[in-house]
């Protein structure tokens, strides 16, 4: 049995819940109250080296980091979600966009809108005084602009006529863009891509 260490408001956890639903894989969910620092224990560190969620146990194997989990699930249970060799580089590049550009822009920007400044600063590892919201906004505008341009010419992020794990990786926080006070009417190609994902069999929306 798969066990997902989860929080309902986490976009990274949502990526994994969504993918598990799309591939029809049963799992057990274990709530981790990160706001109460319940992840900061030696026991949880044995599952997740950086005490971060999501984490997944698959039998005796523990996997942490949402992107590593998505790839583990695809390789073991849903290889149809992996790009063919000719587009494998593109798939991994867009997973990297999720782990880097989105994780350093839209993800923290949304955090500043849904929790207090002090809580956001704690999770981002900075002081309140160094919480650079204008910088997050500028980086978010840039990454969404790049995604918009790419999706205006491609149905899916890695190209081709079927989604890959790259789409789920990037969708997690893009699905929550309105919670970061982003006007998504400015990004019609992203909006259309989000709708395509929402129409996939097994889709589940974000949220508790």
Automatic annotation (TrEMBL):
<feature type="domain" description="GST N-terminal">
    <location>
        <begin position="1"/>
        <end position="81"/>
    </location>
</feature>
<dbReference type="GO" id="GO:0016491">
    <property type="term" value="F:oxidoreductase activity"/>
</dbReference>
<protein>
    <submittedName>
        <fullName>Disulfide-bond oxidoreductase YfcG</fullName>
        <ecNumber>1.8.4.-</ecNumber>
    </submittedName>
</protein>
<feature type="domain" description="GST C-terminal">
    <location>
        <begin position="84"/>
        <end position="208"/>
    </location>
</feature>
<dbReference type="InterPro" id="IPR040079">
    <property type="entry name" value="Glutathione_S-Trfase"/>
</dbReference>
<dbReference type="InterPro" id="IPR004045">
    <property type="entry name" value="Glutathione_S-Trfase_N"/>
</dbReference>
<dbReference type="InterPro" id="IPR010987">
    <property type="entry name" value="Glutathione-S-Trfase_C-like"/>
</dbReference>
<dbReference type="InterPro" id="IPR036282">
    <property type="entry name" value="Glutathione-S-Trfase_C_sf"/>
</dbReference>
<dbReference type="Pfam" id="PF02798">
    <property type="entry name" value="GST_N"/>
</dbReference>
<dbReference type="InterPro" id="IPR036249">
    <property type="entry name" value="Thioredoxin-like_sf"/>
</dbReference>
<dbReference type="Pfam" id="PF00043">
    <property type="entry name" value="GST_C"/>
</dbReference>
<keyword id="KW-0560">Oxidoreductase</keyword>
<comment type="similarity">
    <text>Belongs to the GST superfamily.</text>
</comment>
<dbReference type="InterPro" id="IPR004046">
    <property type="entry name" value="GST_C"/>
</dbReference>
